[in-house]
Amino acid sequence: MCSIATEHFKQLLTAEVTSSEKEICRQAVWEQIQPRVTSVMQAHLLVPFPIEEIYKVLHTLPRHSCSGEDGLSPGFFIKYWELIKIELCEAFQLAFDLGYLLDTWKAGHIFLIPKGEHASEENGGLSQF
Question: What tens digit of pLDDT does each residue of 16-36 get?
């Protein structure tokens, strides 16, 4: 009985399927999937970034969080917003239009911060920073 069941499922699960059969099955599956992003939603997603939206998001970030490779924290962008807002928004829009971010925009620095009573002595005084 065991060998008959094994042979049955082996044939069932390893049957050759032609590419036209695969395409028919694939099309049948796609027809059952409803789009999650409607054309109205897509149009809304493709509008340029409003300056106000970028400003609001900027204010949700911790002002003194670790900066990226450029050394500029969110606090810098908030402080000098009036001077840099146009160029900053244009840079975001360009990245969106091109479909990718520069590698330096995705990079960051990670610093280990020793904790505990003797962190300063154990790490050569690095905890002072």
Answer: 767 788 888 888 888 888 778
